[in-house]
Write a structure and sequence with these properties.
Helix 5 packs across helix 6 and helix 6 packs across helix 7. With 209 residues, the chain is an alpha+beta fold. The N and C termini lie far apart (100 Å). Among the domains are: 33 residues; 84 residues, no CATH class. The strands form two sheets. The chain has a three-stranded antiparallel β-sheet. The chain has a two-stranded antiparallel sheet with strand order 4-5. Strand 2 and strand 3 form a beta hairpin. It contains ten helices and five strands.
Length: 209
C-alpha cells in the first residue's frame, strides 16, 4: 500500500511539474499586454500612416514590416506584350485598390498605341515637319517611347519614317545619298529586323559617348 501511494504521489508531482512548464511556455509565447499609453501611441501612429512612412526615423526594414502589416496581397496582370499593366492591391481587412500602370517594352510595335502613333507620324510628316519637330509634337501630345521616355529622339523618328516608307525619295531602303548599298551595308532598321534586335538599341550603340 505504501509503495502504491508513493507511486501515485510521484505521478502527481510529475504532472504538476508538466503543467507548470506548459503554463510558463504559454506565458512566454503569449503577447505582452500593452499599457493604455502604448495603445494610444499606436493608434496615433496608425491614424497617419503617410507621416509614419516618410518619417526620417523610419528605416527600410520598418517600411517592409509596415507593408506586410497592411497589405494582404498584390496581383499584377499585363495586357499581353503591351506596356499596359493592371495592379490590384488587397489590403488587410479586404479593401482593394486598383491601378493602371505602364511598363517598358522591347519594341515599338508592342505599344498598345502603335497604330495611333504611326498614323500621327504619317500626318505630321505629310505637313512637311522634320524629325525633330515631329518628336516635339509627339511629346506634347503624350506619346511615349517603348521605354516610357517622354520624347522620341530624331533617330527613332527617322527609323519609323523609313519603316513607313513616308519619304521614299530620301529614305529608300535600298539606296543612300551616294548610290546603292553595298553587299555588306545595311539600313539600321533593316539590320535590326534581320537580327531580331530593337532598332532603338542599335541607334543607342551608334550614338557618340
Amino acid at each position: 500500500m505504501a509503495r502504491q501511494l508513493e507511486r501515485e504521489w510521484e505521478a502527481a508531482l510529475a504532472e504538476r511539474a508538466r503543467l507548470a512548464e506548459e503554463y510558463q511556455r504559454y506565458q512566454r509565447q503569449r503577447p505582452a499586454r500593452l499599457s493604455a499609453a502604448e495603445l494610444a501611441a499606436i493608434r496615433a501612429l496608425a491614424g497617419d500612416i503617410p507621416a509614419l512612412w516618410a518619417s526620417a526615423t523610419t528605416t527600410v526594414a520598418d517600411r517592409k514590416r509596415l507593408l506586410r502589416a497592411v497589405i494582404e496581397s498584390v496581383c499584377v496582370t499585363a495586357d499581353g506584350a503591351t506596356e499596359r499593366v493592371q495592379a490590384t492591391v488587397t489590403w488587410a481587412g479586404g479593401h482593394q485598390t486598383h491601378a493602371a500602370l505602364t511598363r517598358p517594352v522591347a519594341r515599338i510595335d508592342q505599344l498598345s498605341y502603335y497604330p495611333a502613333l504611326t498614323e500621327r507620324i504619317r500626318a505630321l510628316a505629310g505637313e512637311g515637319l522634320g524629325n525633330a519637330a515631329i518628336a516635339d509634337r509627339l511629346a506634347a501630345e503624350g506619346f511615349r517611347t517603348p521605354h516610357q521616355h517622354e520624347r522620341f529622339n530624331t533617330g527613332e523618328i527617322q527609323h519609323l519614317i523609313r519603316r513607313l516608307a513616308l519619304r521614299p525619295g530620301l529614305d529608300h531602303d535600298h539606296r543612300t545619298g551616294q548610290g546603292s548599298l553595298g553587299p555588306s551595308q545595311w539600313w539600321l532598321a533593316t539590320l535590326a529586323r534581320e537580327i531580331g534586335m530593337p532598332a532603338a538599341t542599335l541607334f543607342g550603340w551608334l550614338k557618340p559617348s
